[in-house]
Amino acid sequence: MTMATRVRIVSVLFLVGSIALVIRLFYWQAIRASELSDQARLQYQSEEKVLAKRGSILASDGTWLATNIDSYLVFISKPDLKEKSRTVANKLAAILVEKKDGESAGDYQKDLLSEASRIEGLIENTKSVWIPIKHKVELNIKRNIEALGIAGVGFDTEPVRFYPEASSSAQVLGFVGKDNAGDDKGYFGLEGYYDLTLSGKPGYINRESNAAGIPILFGNSKEIDPVEGVDLTTHIDKTVQMYAEKELEKGIQDYGAKGGTVIIMDPNDGSVLAMASYPYYDPGKYWEFTSDKFKNPAISDGFEPGSIMKPLVVAAGLDAGAIKVDTICDICDGPVKVDKYEIETWNHEYHPNSSMTDIIVNSDNVGMTFIGRKLGADKLYDYFNKFGFGETTGVDLQGEVSPQIRKKGTWNIVDLATATFGQGVAVTPIQMARAICAVANGGYLVKPQVVEKIGKGDWANEVKQEKGERVISQKTAEEVRDMMIQAIERGESKWAAPKGFKIAGKTGTAQIPVAGHYDDKKTIASFIGFAPANKPRFAMLVTLTEPSSSQWGSETAAPLWFNIARDIFPYLGIQPEN
Amino acid sequence: MKSKTLNSKGYGKLIKRVPKVLAVCLIVFALATILLTIESSAQGATLTALETKVNQIESQNQELRSDLVVSTSLAKVGEEASKIGMVKPEKLTYLSNEKPVANKIP
Asked: Which residues of chain A have a Cβ shorter than 8 Å from any chain B Cβ?
């Protein structure tokens, strides 16, 4: 082979090599450019979503009802362990397992051994060098583990929603769960109603880092700070709430009821001071409870109110001019026939020529039928409407419902008669409490409000509370108030009332409709009232579902109401009048 | 004529100096890049250290806040109150706020 041929072959090889190189370079630089660029970016660029802190829910005194705290994940870094796995497991188990109330020493030992063997198994059998041991460990437990100084044991923070009062105000607060995307979301109560306000807006960090993870200052970076959620300051008074819950639980046990509700409001502006329901749940461990416990019966359950409706029907009669305080009932001497039904009094005792006050004091169903006849169905419907029945109150809690009231013009004489003593119409406890506030405050229908202020740090925005529309005259409100005072001083519940205090109130016992008829033995016992009667500081509704010791409100709900009031009087500085 | 000869010589010298100037510029540029990289890396490390410190302080702050939240709960306050022997009064006595008759006399 001549020299010239060799040179030519080498030249061709160089040419082919160069063309192959250019093609390969084109492949990497043009065809797979974006893919490679993405891979490179993954190595030097980090993207992170910065979660916004959820706002806290505060009681009226500024202490916490719900807030965020850190819990901890206890983990073991296997290469850093210096002690035997069994020793580490025993040490950790001794702190992680707490002795439960009433647990025997033997059972506690069993739990300890079980936890120690679980931890040892994890250390021995897990191939990974990083082993998670226990999630959501509390701060004091973390501190105890730290004090042991076990090499190789570490902690990662895990933010959790914390309810320091546990199950207190559970149905008012709601809880924080997860949505479909795995983000925090509030459900029920305040957590649900104010979810957007409490949630804030997450931030974002995008920056370039070197191989060691140290940020490159001159590299591309983009940061958007998170907007923290806003705090809610509520009207809830923790002390009043505690009194209500404690007495409600005791009352339910004493009277053998299936459940119960207490609502305490400031009748002057509609502030909700306390709202308790039983059975309750712990919002911090909501997953341990069935979903039927989550809804708040005070705003979500309709019930036939029974005789606690009577003061409102009398108010309607007085305000419409259909009756006067000194009007005499001329049918009160015996049962009254309405269509094919006979209306009787609750104790089968009759009071001829009763005044309107006597009708309230004796809780006289015949007398109420008399008032209904004077007033008429359409006017009664109008006043029910004015008192807010048939529509939601607008309370700032998620899950409020409103039972429907039969349409105007469709009421027959039986509907009218039964509605006057609170049967055949359904309301929610919050609707009832709101309506009685109108009697207490001189005639205005207030809007129930749980949150007082929305704010963060130095900024705060008060939630405007409107006085509401006048629904009855001042004179009517005062006349009904005086009748309710007489109902306490002379009525069936007088034995339980605290002496010396002027309280306006009314008992109620309503039969529960079951499959189209009323069950005599199943009742909702209730008591509604306000105090001090002449200058009310609070209005309160107590309902007990199916009390078994007595079906009557005067023997169950009334003493419970008075017990709560006895606690509240000294706390609010309310003195007896004589 | 003289100046033309000088100009040619000057250009020649200048052309001879170009590689040296370029080399110096290259070295200066390389040194500046190295120094800048070191400085950037050092400041990045400082930033990381500061962020770690901020996280530690925030974590301590959060721990203190958790202590405060737990210790101000009614359950905890009640527990502490009973530990020091405080009990709920069984019977309340109200004092009249009316002034005695003698005080009303001017």
From this structure: 63-64, 67, 69-70, 139, 157, 162, 164-166, 168, 209-210, 213-218, 238-239, 242, 500, 570, 575-576
A251 vs A124: CA distance, rounded Å: 54
DSSP assignment, residue A476?
Answer: H
Nearest to B48 among A63, A69, A215 (CB): A215
By Cβ distance, the residue of B59, B69, B97 closest to A164 is: B69
Q: Which residue has the higher pLDDT, B6 or A266?
A: A266
Residue B31 has pLDDT above 90, yes or no: yes
Q: Of B16 and A119, which is predicted with more confidence?
A: A119
pLDDT beyond 90 at B66: no
A123-133 pLDDT, tens digit per residue, is: 988 788 889 89
CA A33 to chain centre: 55
Q: Helices A310-320 and A413-420, interaxial angle, to 10°? A: 110
DSSP letter assigned to residue A82: -
**Closest Cβ opposite residue A217 in set B44, B66, B70:** B44
pLDDT tens digits, residue range A417-472? 999 999 999 999 999 999 999 999 999 999 999 999 999 888 888 888 777 899 99
Give phi and psi for A258, each to the nearest 5.
-80, -25
Q: Which of A500, A550, A504, A499 lies closest to A527 in space, CA to CA?
A: A504
Q: Which residues, including other chains, have CB under 8 Å from residue A317's CB and lie 6 or more apart?
A: A323, A356, A371, A374, A375
pLDDT at B103 over 70: no
- Would you put residue B27 in left (φ > 0), alpha (ψ -120 to 50) or beta? alpha
Q: What pLDDT does A419 receive?
A: 94
Task: Please give the Cα distance from A13 to A464 (Å, whole number).
Answer: 87
Which chain B residues have a beta carbon less than 8 Å from that of A70? 59, 62-63, 66
For A487-503, write each residue's pLDDT tens digit. 999 988 888 889 889 99
- The pLDDT assigned to B5 comes to 54
A165·B74 Cβ contact <8 A: yes
Question: A-chain residues within 8 Å CB-CB of B75?
Answer: 164-166
The percent of chain B in helix, strand and coil, each rounded to the nearest 5, is 80, 0, 20
Q: Are A369 and A418 in contact (CB under 8 A)?
A: no
Cβ contact A500–B94 (<8 Å) = yes
At residue A276, the 3 state secondary structure works out as: strand
**CA atoms of A479 and A325, how far apart (whole Å):** 7
Number of H helices, E strands in chain A: 18, 21
State if pTM tops 0.95.
no
Strands A184-187 and A203-208, bridge-based pairing: unpaired
Q: Is residue A311 within 8 Å of A483, Cβ to Cβ?
A: yes
Q: Note whether A200 and A52 are within 8 A (CB).
A: yes
Residues of chain A under the 70 pLDDT cut: 213, 515-516, 578
Q: pLDDT category, B1, cuts 50, 70, 90?
A: very low
Chain A residue closest to B41 (CA)? A216
